[in-house]
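Lab notebook, bench 4. The sequencing result for the construct came back, and we need a structural model before the next group meeting so we can plan mutations. Quick request posted to the team channel:

Model the 3D structure of this chain.
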Amino acid sequence: MAIEVRIPTILRTYTDGEKSVAGEGSTIKELFEDLESRHAGIQDRLVEGGELRRFVNVYLNDEDVRFLDGITTKVGDGDNVTILPAVAGGSGAAEARGTRR
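Done. Here's the predicted structure in C-alpha cell form:
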C-alpha cells in the first residue's frame, strides 16, 4: 500500500495531468524525494532550502504539516497527502475607490 498524494492543477504538468499519484517514504521529505524520482521537477516547486516553500500548504490526512513536524512529519501506508498552493486575495483596489463588493 502507498501514500496517496493529491496534486493541485498548477503542478499537474509534472504528473502528466494526474490529479493524484502514489508515493512512498516515512516522512514528507522522503515522500517528496520519491515523487521527484518519478516526476522530475516537482520537488523544487515544493521545497526550498530544506523546508516547505512559503506559499505551499501540505496537509496530512487534513492536518496542516506546519502544525505537526513540518517536512519531517511522519507518513505511512494509507495516508493521504494534499498539496495546495496558498491563495491570496485581491489588490484592495475596490476599497481604495471607496466601493465594496
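The beta strands are 3-6, 20-23, 47-48, 51-52, 56-60, 63-64, 80-85.
Will bring this to the meeting.
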